[in-house]
Design brief:
197 residues
Length: 197
């Protein structure tokens, strides 16, 4: 009993260790939920390994020359994301992401698009480490933000719900601090943040 109690205390106070590979993650309690503050870094044959999650699209691991299991950022396809969290943790559903955004500020719910005006900035200020928004420039002329996307477990017809950052398309600083909960294609690979059961 004492060992379980101490493990729970350690988790809510800021760390948890994945028993599968011994990696330790920061955790953060936001509202009534306990989240992995870090991006999950559990290597699988279906994940894509990167050096870090700030500008993660620029530095993929070269599996022919490197041990990808030792990198510190993994991107997962949606099917893998649904089964990759350690025991006692799970991929969040739409409602859990919604509660997360409510805990860091006011949201407006439009049914198919939940908007948190300061969600991105407020999550980061709480210690929730989310991938940086990458500035992409084409031909030195046109620049835009490539947003972060975090998978949820919840489907909606041919799409899935995701937490996504503001893209800066409006061209205002405030817009870039937004976080949205919306549907998104299942294609591609994205980071995962697990929430405690």
């Amino acid at each position: 009993f004492l060992a379980v109690f101490m493990a729970l205390i350690a988790c809510e106070n800021g760390t948890m260790t994945d028993p599968r590979d011994g990696k330790t993650y920061k955790t953060v309690k936001i509202g009534e939920q306990v989240w992995m503050a870090d991006n999950l870094d559990y290597w699988t044959p279906n994940s894509k390994s990167y050096e870090n999650c700030t500008g993660f699209r620029d530095r993929p691991c070269n599996s022919d020359k490197e041990d990808c299991s030792k990198k510190n950022c993994q991107l997962y396809d949606w099917n893998t994301a649904n089964h990759v969290c350690p025991v006692g943790w799970h991929l969040p559903n739409k409602e859990e992401f919604k509660l997360l955004l409510k805990s860091v500020g006011e949201i407006s719910d439009h049914g198919d698009n939940v908007v948190s005006k300061m969600g991105y900035a407020n999550l980061r200020s709480k210690g929730f480490i989310i991938p940086g928004k990458t500035i992409v420039t084409m031909l030195g002329l046109l620049s835009w933000y490539e947003p972060f996307v975090l998978w949820s477990s919840e489907e909606d017809d041919s799409s899935v719900w995701v937490l996504i950052s503001g893209t800066g398309i409006e061209g205002t600083d405030t817009q870039e601090d937004y976080a949205y909960l919306k549907t998104h294609s299942r294609r591609g690979k994205n980071p995962v943040h697990c929430v405690k059961d």
